[in-house]
Amino acid sequence: MVREFSAGGVVLRRMSGGWHIAAIEPEKEEPPPGRGRRISARKPVLALPKGLIDEGENPVETAIREVREETGVAAALITKLTDIKYVYIRTWADRERVFKIVSFYLLRYQSGRIDEIKPEMRIEVRRALWLPLEEAPVKLSYSGERQVVRKAQEYLQSHPEV
User: What domains lie within the chain, and their CATH numbers?
Assistant: First the structure.
């Protein structure tokens, strides 16, 4: 089984009296038109920014780079939150089973404008947005990432100085 290693971030920013996190809506191809296709709008996929660790890069560097590339904001490390592990099947290539480990870090917003990303990133990211932290465990699409955000909330409760 192929193994992949990625890293991503939960970027915290204090706005409007509360904590928000940077989230992305990945760019997904629309299903082809045909019988059985629903006309109604489907719920968008919301995820945390993350990506593969490049050669010569450590996971923290990857998380900070992926956040910048996918959201348009610069962020600094607070702490490591957790690793999530799962298996998926590559549907776009060789149908290979992949064991994936994603290291997630808690990051603090430093600068930049959300969704101000390079045009070439639009093939991966439809949009980036600030999401109220208390809504994230419900609005994020992937259960592993919802658990990551809960860990971020726990960290904030035990470290009010953040």
Answer: 2-27+43-158 (3.90.79.10)
